[in-house]
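subagent[fold] <- orchestrator: predict structure for attached chain, return tokens only, no commentary.
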Amino acid sequence: MPNDGLVTLTSTHDFATTLARLSAALDAKGIGVFARIDHAAGAASVGLALPPTTLLVFGNPAAGTPLMQAVQTSGIDLPLKALVWQDATGAVRLTYNDAAWIAARHGLGPETQKSVAALAQALDALARHATGA
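subagent[fold] -> orchestrator:
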């Protein structure tokens, strides 16, 4: 399978706990949550079924702005996002965009390498904390 830029971890927790752990970790790190989108509730509002699926949109302007200053189109992938979802088998997963993939997608140069590495490390730590992986 080609690199689609997605990183997915399987959670050792149920859906609600995984989502709560991610939210709490973001809050503890002072990372703002700009939006919380409950896709399952949206589906239910039009009579459709969808397993629990919630997208958190989050970030820190101090971390993301240097990337947008370097290549403004990176703003399409910023702020960052994490999707907590339950698959058809009941497994709970957390998926996010790989920071290195975002950098490659937008042609971010070496001057952003430290920022991209910091984002990658933060995303990995947040995802592992949320999922217990």
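orchestrator: received. Logging for downstream: The mean pLDDT is 96. DSSP finds five helices and five strands in the chain.
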